[in-house]
Write a structure and sequence with these properties.
The complex is a heterodimer of chains A (about 270) and B (about 525).
Chain A (H helix, E strand, L loop, with lengths): L1 H12 L16 E4 L2 E3 L12 E3 L2 E4 L5 H10 L42 H10 L7 H8 L12 H11 L28 E2 L24 H7 L7 H11 L10 E2 L3 E3 L8
Chain B lengths: L3 H8 L2 H9 L5 H10 L8 E9 L16 E19 L2 E8 L8 E4 L3 E8 L10 E2 L19 E7 L4 E6 L5 H6 L3 E7 L9 E10 L9 E2 L4 H6 L4 E4 L12 E4 L3 E10 L4 E6 L3 E5 L8 E4 L1 E4 L3 E8 L4 E7 L3 H6 L2 E7 L20 H9 L13 H5 L8 H10 L6 H20 L17 H5 L2 H10 L1 E7 L2 E7 L6 H16 L7 H9 L3
Parallel strand pairs in B: 1-2, 2-5, 3-11, 4-9, 10-14, 13-21
Antiparallel strand pairs in B: 2-3, 5-7, 6-8, 8-9, 10-12, 14-19, 15-18, 15-20, 16-17, 16-19, 20-21, 22-23
Helix pairs in contact in B: 10-13, 12-14, 13-14
The chains are: A alpha+beta (about 270), B alpha/beta (about 525).
Chain lengths: ~270, ~525
Amino acid sequence: MRRISILILVVVVNLPIIGHGKLSDSHEDMALIKGGKYKPLYGANNNSDEVSVSPFYIDRFPVTNKLFLQFVKENPNWRRSNVKKLFADENYLKNWKSDLELGQNVLPDAPVTNVSWFVAKAYCEYYGKRLPTVAEWELVAQASAKQADGSKDPNYIRQILEWYSKPTQKIIPAVGQNEKNIWGVYDMHGLVWEWTSDFFSAMVTGESRGDSGLERNLFCGSGSVGASDFKNYPAFMRFAFRSSLKANYTTNNLGFRCAKDFYQRSNEK
Amino acid sequence: MKTIAVQLNRTNCSSIKNFGGLLGIKSLGILFLLAFIVVGCGEQYSDEVIGEEHAQLTDAPYVPPPITRKHATKVIVDLEVRELVKKLSDDVEYVFWTFGGSVPGKFIRVREGDLVEFHLHNNPLSKLPHNIDLHAVTGPGGGATSSFTAPGHTSVFSFTVKNPGLYVYHCATAPVGMHIANGMYGLILVEPKEGLPPVDREYYLMQSEFYTEGNYGAAGLQPFSMEKAIAEKPDYVVFNGSVGSMVGDKALIANVGERVRFFVGNGGPNLVSSFHVIGEILDVVHREGSFSSVEKDVQTTLIPAGGSSIVEFTVDVPGNYIMVDHSIFRAFNKGALGMLSVSGPDNKTIYSGKQADEIYTASSSGTEEVNSFTGELNRNNGNEQYSSKYSNGDPAIDGNLIKTAAQTGAKNSSPGNIFGLGQSVYSTSCFACHQADGNGIPNVFPPLLNSDWLKKNSKEDAIRNVVHGKTGEISVNSKKYNGIMPSQNLDDVHAAAVLTYVYKKFIGKDVNISPEEVKKIRAQKK
């Protein structure tokens, strides 16, 4: 039964997908992630909190300045001078020289940063994709070069931690220079932070010493008590970073990449 | 509930202080007495918030000036979080996360009753979000809930400082321990309404630990070690953010007769500090930074992680006073050491200096006691008592061989025996400062290992340092040191042995130093 349904769905995937922008039925810039179980760091009191992640595609690289420039050329509403403050704060694309020029110190092949969640979402949708969920992103990010789950490998954690511990470089390097992980995905760590579709729902607390269900800002309170892995400092830092954000925020070291369902929903336009 | 002591303290008023000042009285005790006598004296202090001002912030070891306002005000504090690479020690760099660009963070000084409007800026180049938990805040998270700030953003929140005291502030963003371990702490002083008794000098000191992948002294940019932090085993325990932050030409200064106040914090993240000033008794200690605690005549005060202490003392005698964590290996092996350099005239009544340096031959009864420990009875030879100390079953340092060396002089004994004896002496008399590996402590104690001083100077000079001590500036391997090496309490044989050992071990040279040569130098005045 199950095998048959997968076969059918694979056929569906191979149909051209109708998006607003460039049509693409190949996934050569994306990696297929088989899916699996992901255990959130917070609010995880027992194994029942594990999240099942279905197979999906994810961009091999973060979206670059060059690609994003093409997007704003085709979408004037998202140019720096046109964007609504509700959707991106005043630092939106501030490292670019102008609406359609990158300028010095901004490498075309470097990941685009200073972008809000709204624009990242719009970008992905324009190309018939979507932002990855936290669970999807974390599932890909826990893969080291050799293991699908490197989160228990102290060396892997140490490498990531070293990057998190360093200030942002003044000139962000081009994508694809770090070692790819076992899925063939580059730069999950070591280049920029990345938006996820549900970044704001990360801090649900399983145990609360206070009376509130959400203690998103109070890490030394209930947040850490419910943690499933006290030693996964990099994961703590990502959760902290995500929960410091609002959807219109833009920062120097925050970019994004897109994902796409493996099983295309039949009612998608 | 306020204690009586607090109420007494509160009744201090500036008129009494001025009166005390006129009389040249700075003792807190007498101030209390005056306050007690002159009941209901002086002016009213207002809780009303009048006007506003921008807080003047300082980097350690400096403290903003005392507050002279008689009323509360709105104080605007601007503090920027920056992540940057700085020196942790000579040749050792670290990525510090800072409140204001250095470790510890900026010193904030406000007055009881002030309304503080806090602007926490997170530099756009920061990789991480940060927040601030000020222990002076009454409210959830101590401000942490209201100050969580993404890179390139600013959070603003306000609080009224209700309780006077010296409080730690720190970052409380997950993982909290790592944010603190990387340097995110500082002090906020809430002065009592009536202010603090005037002193001549105020300084800001903060102890903390650093957990690095490499061991103490390992050169280069050292990443944070999560394993060592969780195990609570730091390689560095320092004052004011780096080894040698307050020694040499960076030593704190004071003049004889001055009253000195230290605002001391402990950022942790893990260790409790046994704060001690070598050569000073702390005249007054406000334990845990609480003005309601007035302890007098304290030798060492315990400062909890995330806590503070205010200590005051008058310096009577010139010289260098060393601030340490009296968990002493932290001071001499991990960097928890600072210096207060006091200049002015001597006071021989309070401290005479060395009045005599004489030959001492242990009385027979004394020798008997020592040697009865080993079951031997040796009389009339002071050197032999070392046989009990140094004999570990190692033939090289066996008591009988030492006796041979002592009796015949170094020239007739085998080099190996002298080397073994020298090694023993080194490991008891020298290593605490010059370190087991001969590398010394950066900026504090010069290295012996490949020391160009030892290569350039004669062996007589080296002997002189050991038997007479050495003070004043010297240059070793192109770094300047200005400390005090005391004369070593070693007899001729042991001094000769340790010097022979040092030349062989750390310079790689066979320099044969005999007890006779030591004796000759010892007889000379320094």
